[in-house]
Amino acid sequence: QAQLVESGGGLVQPGGSLRLSCAASGIPFNSTTSMGWYRQAPGKDRELVALIFNNGDAKYVNSAKGRFSISRDNAKNTIYLQIRSLQPEDAAIYSCNAKFSGRSIWGQGTRVTVSS
What we know:
The protein is mainly β. The chain has strands spanning 3-7, 10-12, 18-25, 34-40, 47-52, 58-60, 68-73, 78-83, 92-100, 103-106, 110-114. The protein is globular. The mean pLDDT is 96.
């Protein structure tokens, strides 16, 4: 069964950091077209944050450049999203996505709250 499980969210003070994890199972992790992190803030549409490809190349939306870093560990079938200098506007549910063999699957998301 194809599954993505995110973890690592929580309450962080402004300026803090978090590392989100997305563990994949039941998918051809090393043969995915892409894997990515998306986020959805309250009252807003889900938006792309970053993508990572099998060769390790990464792409970021403009708003994520500089403070966000996506990475992958092929041995653990896991991708990560490191977020630095968290701002209140970063508060959202962060979800992991995998695209492979014409399919697109999502995790359940992990909530990031930024508050002092």
